[in-house]
Amino acid sequence: MAAAAISCHLSSVTSPEAVSVSSASSLSFTARSLYPPSGVFVPSPAISRGISCQTLFSAPSSVYGKAKESLKDFLHIRDFDKDTILKILDRAREVKSMIKSGDRTYLPFKGKTMAMIFAKPSMRTRVSFETGFYLLGGHALYLGPDDIQMGKREETRDVARVLSRYNDIIMARVFAHQDIIDLAKYSSVPVINGLTDYNHPCQIMADALTIIEHVGHLEGTKVVYVGDGNNIVHSWLLLASVIPFHFVCACPRGFEPDARTTKTAIKAGVSKIEITCDPKEAVKGADVVYTDVWASMGQKEEAEYRRKVFQGFQVDEALMELAGPKAYFMHCLPAERGVEVTDGVVEAANSIVFPQAENRMHAQNAIMLHALGL
């Protein structure tokens, strides 16, 4: 699989031909591309950050084998235009207000069921989807890693077609991105991406909702992510290709986000995007400083190695001070306190990690309402 070269220099990204990386000195590095040049899906090699995905941006919606005019999967944020994303976020605020008021008369999911496939376990994803669907009148079924063994015990295409006959909607939290693509291809009901190794669109929708609530707006804000260029970063890049804001990813060399995703976001010409090696410079003037664990699920054997490589990328009180007094701290959780973030930062007055966690439920409710056409 071809690697995409990225030059490392101090400037803003203005061209899709290069990714801007800030550092104290001039240097160059190579970032892995998750996509083959031909646009045909090829499984990733066994590398430390191997992620299986396929081209997201060039293929028309019809490749998924469903009539997208009447059926709406939620697989990648960039599948939707700005107006649709903002409408979903507005709907999330409306439904959240209703739920918080104690009103339990709004039951759009009454008589509907959702199948929740969990190849990867998660507290927040399960509780937020299951509780949210229940509060709006529906019933959710949890299918854990041992219940289906999708792709091992039974082929994904068969799982999709069977579950579609029982349920009104499917949510899946999986490892390989190809699994969510295949589910959507063969399902006759909407499929919601609850997380893959490539992206995490529901999390970033919740993050956007949280920023709107606390900063007052998303457009024009400066969001600085410090840490591994992982699936969270990919979703931020996809959002930045739809809604204009300033996104900076500060990560160690060799842990940059997917090169093709970065270039696609830059080529969209919507947001200012920077990939930098210098977190201290990156956070200056930030509205939000964001981080995630350095070793995600499936990478725990690399944890000690990553702790050494990521020295200097911990979000601590000193880094937040550089960001300025108005900067909020965000984390998608779970957090390894004392590793990627200090306990003091998580517990500080400007930390909004728990409102952010709550908003998973509200954003996802709105996504499901949109997917079901309600």
Q: Mind explaining what this structure looks like?
A:
- This protein is α/β, with parallel strands linked by helices.
- It has 13 helices and eleven strands.
- A five-stranded parallel sheet has the order 9-8-7-10-11, with helices on one face.
- Helix 8 links the parallel strand 8 and strand 9.
- Helix 4 crosses helix 5 and helix 6 crosses helix 13.
- The longest helix is centred in the first third of the chain and has 19 residues.
- The chain is globular, with a radius of gyration of 20 Å.
- The N terminus is likely disordered.
Secondary-structure topology with pairs:
Elements: E1 3-8, E2 27-32, H1 82-100, E3 113-118, H2 123-135, E4 139-143, H3 145-148, H4 156-166, E5 169-173, H5 177-186, E6 191-195, H6 201-215, E7 222-226, H7 231-240, E8 246-250, H8 259-268, E9 272-276, H9 279-282, E10 288-291, H10 303-309, H11 317-323, E11 328-331, H12 343-346, H13 353-371
Parallel strand pairs: 3-4, 3-5, 5-6, 7-8, 7-10, 8-9, 10-11
Antiparallel strand pairs: 1-2
Helix pairs in contact: 1-6, 1-13, 2-13, 4-5, 6-13, 7-8
